[in-house]
Q: What sequence folds into this?
């Protein structure tokens, strides 16, 4: 009788937590952490260091070239990131055979970029090609 009273007085959340604790105790076996040999760690660190120097140098050169090339870098990074997302999305939704799926998404990217960058780039090109006397 006391067990029934005890079970009724406990909240369902406490019962779930007890059940989880029991399951964790049964399934908990220590797994060793994966370790790499020291030579591979140093090789990976050296490779990352060597590739980071030209990347930082290229970024500094792009900054030195001016705002047009910075905007071009931003747009190219957006397009590449969007392409990766479209590859993932197409693999997920290819079974649905959605018409114009890729075209509409790329159109959205173009419209969004024109909305955010269009006016500033248009004024830059106007000054670059036509001159200050427009």
A:
């Amino acid at each position: 009788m006391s067990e029934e009273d005890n079970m009724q007085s406990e909240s369902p959340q406490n019962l779930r937590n007890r059940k989880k604790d029991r399951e964790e105790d049964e399934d908990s076996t220590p797994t060793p952490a994966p370790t790499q040999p020291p030579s591979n760690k140093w090789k990976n660190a050296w490779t990352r260091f060597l590739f980071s120097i030209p990347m930082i140098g290229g970024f500094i050169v792009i900054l030195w070239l001016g705002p047009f090339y910075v905007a071009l870098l931003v747009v190219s990074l957006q397009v590449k990131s969007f392409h990766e997302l479209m590859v993932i999305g197409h693999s997920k939704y290819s079974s649905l055979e959605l018409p114009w799926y890729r075209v509409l998404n790329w159109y959205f990217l173009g419209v969004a970029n024109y909305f955010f960058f269009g006016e500033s780039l248009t004024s830059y090109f106007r000054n670059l090609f036509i001159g200050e006397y427009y």
